[in-house]
Amino acid sequence: HPFSSQYKLDKDLGKGAFSVVKKAIQKPNKHEYAxxxxxxxxxxxxxxxxxxxxxxxxxxLQHENIVQLHHVFQEDHVRYMIFDLITGGExxxxxxxxxFYSEKDASKCIQQILESVKYCHDRRIIHRDLKPENxxxxxxxxxxxxxxxxxxxxxxxxxxxxxxxFAGTPGYLSPEVLNKQPYxxxxxIWACGVVLYILLVGYPPFWDDNQQRMFNVIKKGKxxxxxxxxxxxxxxxxxxxxxxxxxxxxxxxxxxxxxDHTWIKNC
Length: 267
Ligand SMILES: CCCCCCCNC(=O)OC[C@@H]1O[C@H](OC)[C@H](O)[C@@H](O)[C@H]1O
Description:
Layout: H1 2-6, E1 7-15, E2 19-26, E3 32-39, H2 45-60, E4 69-75, E5 78-84, H3 91-98, H4 103-122, E6 125-126, E7 135-137, E8 146-148, E9 155-156, H5 175-178, H6 186-201, H7 211-220, H8 235-244, H9 255-259, H10 262-265
Antiparallel strand pairs: 1-2, 2-3, 3-5, 4-5, 6-9, 7-8
Helix pairs in contact: 4-6, 6-8
Methyl 6-O-(heptylcarbamoyl)-beta-L-altropyranoside is lined by residues 13-14, 16, 21, 34, 36, 67, 83-86, 89-90, 136, 149-150, 152.
């Protein structure tokens, strides 16, 4: 048993629909990892394909701001995916704890997210589920490295724009996905715009208790900068958000161009 002979399982870190993430300690050297455990017996062949796709995509990615996959073991009907152990928790909880970020911290945070997104897009990978719950902090100190996690919904883009299905998380879905149009890398930039807005004020740009009403607002790209909290935010910050939350995906800023934006370069 290649996994069980080398690793000791420790506490639970998170739970998915058909998987659990646990801490794992490598026996010889006591190195600590996070292991995603999947019971492949219960999976349909479609879901098995999805997990194979996730592992294939993760193997393509080695970047400072992406959670590193180290190994995949298959034992009987259980698959073990060994990832970096990230101890700073989710960006989501850090924003709640701090209420919102300063412009300097938000700029450094979104810069790292855009670096990871550009790295994926350069390799034809669309993440499709960018949100503060899938962004992990290397440690608790402000300005700690941010790491993109969970490529469970990621896809390998075709050449032209393609409709890869309706996937993501409601408040972060782009107009093109909601309109069931062919889409590409641009869906990740829309989600970055939602994340940046939340970083600066602690609440999302699009929200309605009624999901259909929220989808209609997203499709129109209608969002505000309410007073007083937005009155003290710089024009540069709002300019970058305005270039990310553009309804027309052809006009939306790319990760590469966003990294050259003055609010990222000079913050
Ligand atoms: C889910 C597929 C990617 C697994 C990546 C493991 C990253 N290493 C890792 O240490 O993840 C830690 C926990 O794992 C879950 O997030 C994936 C918890 O929800 C998070 O709160 C997080 O604390």
